[in-house]
Amino acid sequence: MFKQFTENISGNQFYLLFSLSLFLVFFIVVTILLFKMKKDHVDSMSDMPLHDSLNDTLKSLQS
Amino acid sequence: MQPEKFYYDNKIVRNFGIATIVWGIIGMLVGLLVAIQLYKPAMNMGNQYTTFGRIRPLHTNAVIFAFVGNAIFMGVYYSLQRLLKARMFSDVLSKIHFWGWQLIIISAVITLPLGITTSHEYAELEWPIDIAITLIWVVFGINMFGTIFKRRERHLYVAIWFYIATFVTVAVLHIVNSFELPISFLKSYYLFAGVQDALVQWWYGHNAVAFFLTTPYLGMMYYFLPKMANRPIYSYKLSILHFWALIFIYIWAGPHHLLYTTLPGWAQSLGVVFSIMLIAPSWGGMINGLLTLRGAWDKVRDDVILKFMVVGLTAYGMATFEGPMLSLKQVNAIGHFTDWIIAHVHVGALGWNGFLTFAILYWLIPRIYRTELYSKKLASWHFWIGTLGILFYAIPMYWSGFTQGLMLKEFTQEGMLKYPNFLETTMRIIPMHVMRSIGGTLYLGGVIMMAYNLAKTMLKGSLVANEAAEAMPLAPNYTKAQDGFWHRTLERRPIQMLVLSLVVILIGTFVELMPTLTISSNIPTIASVKPYTPLELQGRDIYIREGCVGCHSQTVRPFRSETERYGEYSKAGEFVYDHPFLWGSKRTGPDLQREGGKYGNAWHYNHLMDPRLMSPGSIMPNYDWLITQKLDTSNTADKINAMRKLGVPYAPGYEKVANRDLNKQAQDIADNLAKDHIKVNSNKEIIAIIAYLQRLGTDIKANKTASN
């Protein structure tokens, strides 16, 4: 299967390699940064849809 | 600081909800009609306005932009206000957005049956409507960002990133794929031709799936699923990772629609590699959705809304696994142009978009009407009948796709095509098409039940048009969090989020499109390829008007099974004057690229009048009005001028004498038909379309040498 890629891109490997490495760098950077994320922030963000009605707001104001 | 009191606008949500249901029923009804036409040609109803070629785009546009489009706006307007703790920025803009979008849909309902089309799939609407879409999209953008700016919640939840990426990418896609040169109020030619036009169209087409049918729905899933299950999303970190990976990768995958065509090989490879990579972020979203229900599976058994969500997410997982598999060249060789693709898109459309929409409607309508759903039992019936409908739709279409794809490739032991007559393969799959329409009927039946159930619910309750809410205003002087986490910063900066999303999607766009659009060596020219004659050009526009491209491709792939059946495989240089390209994406009938000279003029005349005269059992509609309608030659000069502006080398001043050449060629064809005892005036439309069909693919039959 991989042969078809290498055969078809003769002289144009640059595009493929450039694109793949670009994504790889992008992906690794996002992943590393994600590991540095704080848990309390993650929790508060995930809870956001559950605290958007008037009742939820009132509850949070009372607490 | 005192909490502020404000009101959510539920009326606009309700309006988009009703529009979703109404257009959904209409769009699916048209879908059912086109499905029946594929085995009962009489259902074309004997007039030009209801033939398959013209109303198939009406079906696709209605379900994508009217049904799904309105559902997106319903979901966005509901969730955006609540996630930002603010009413929509402007009620006037909301109204303009709503009515503007409905008017655009109505203009599509009028123009498409009239044959007013650009022929680009899912972008068929002509240039004035394109401008209207742009304006209304900008109104939506202003309204969304206006709301974001006046928010009472510092951080933007993941759903809103998906909405922002949707807004900016759809804007880019729509504008680039609408580069057209108008020649009259409702007719234009695309700026790019042939291979370039194909690349732009499928970059658009694929990403319309990505950024209209996928990202806004993922955003809605991230909001509504936690609400429905009453628990937070499984992994917020995963949502960040899969959001950025998804929008980065999706934009590159378009060329998998053009495998084995004359698109440069490197661009095809790029499309395949990125399509395979797409599995990861797509499944990231599906897994995040399904795992949100961890520990709540007992609820799924009782709650029909969650059932819809689970089947919808599963359909998303299936479609996003199948898509990359179909982009493998060996699989694509069999599946492309067949019903397999129809099955694939409908698993996504009926399962993912349809079921998520139904779940959101069932959840949202009772809430904004402060009542209970009229009948849970009816909703449960809808779920089962809808699920059965999807199965009865998809399974016959897979079967049909494999059957036809393999039959078309089969050789006898002597090395001859086993089924040299394309029609033989069509007739073999007719039972599957009958079953598919039964599946479609079941699915539509479910939607009608939902409409009844929701209408009863609305009558039972009363709309809370302005829902009271309270929230603390944002502190004017925000002190940055000490940890300075990058995404946390981004989550409170919508404009930076928009710019970053734009940059991410533009990277793929530029690397993929620019070489083919700017480097001429990517499109080798062929000396013997000449511009169309004026009559052929007019004939080509009739071919476009009738939507022939919906069933007939014009690109012969380099397989022995295709060169034996159709003739020499396609070369990029053959399409350099094709504004727009007409390669098509589905072969309900045979490829037409080498049609020129295959049959006599009389054969085409009789075949267009009644296809069953020449090909008994054919499912093609009659085109008898082409015999009676007079060809409009008043615009020939404008068309020649427009083509010249786009780079087609017509001699200076040729537009003045073009109609003279047109009449002469038309007379020759009429005289030729008269020899076969067919009396027809040379000024009829059928003469022009015969001229075009007889020209197809003949350039390189005369001279096969390429200059480059």
Automatic annotation (TrEMBL), chain A:
The chain crosses the membrane at residues 14-35. Residues 44-63 are annotated as: Disordered. Keywords: Membrane, Transmembrane, Transmembrane helix. The lineage of its organism: Bacteria, Pseudomonadati, Bacteroidota, Sphingobacteriia, Sphingobacteriales. This is Cbb3-type cytochrome oxidase component FixQ. It comes from Mucilaginibacter straminoryzae. Residues 44-54 have a biased composition (Basic and acidic residues).
TrEMBL record, chain B:
Binds 1 copper ion per subunit, denoted as copper B. Gene3D superfamilies: Cytochrome c oxidase-like, subunit I domain (1.20.210.10), Cytochrome c-like domain (1.10.760.10). The chain crosses the membrane at residues 12-38, 58-78, 98-116, 128-149, 156-176, 202-224, 236-253, 265-283, 304-321, 341-366, 378-399, 434-455, 497-517. GO terms for biological process: aerobic respiration; electron transport coupled proton transport; respiratory electron transport chain. Its main location: membrane. Pfam families: COX1, FixO. It is found in: Cell membrane. Pathway: Energy metabolism; oxidative phosphorylation. GO terms for cellular component: plasma membrane. It is a multi-pass membrane protein. Residues 1-463 form the Cytochrome oxidase subunit I profile domain. Its EC number is 7.1.1.9. Its cofactor is Cu(2+); heme b; heme. Residues 534-697 form the Cytochrome c domain. Heme b 1; low-spin binds at residues 59, 346. PANTHER family: CYTOCHROME C OXIDASE SUBUNIT 1, CYTOCHROME C OXIDASE SUBUNIT 1 HOMOLOG, BACTEROID. Belongs to the heme-copper respiratory oxidase family. NCBIfam families: ccoN, ccoO, PRK14485.1, PRK14487.1. This is cytochrome-c oxidase. It comes from Mucilaginibacter straminoryzae.
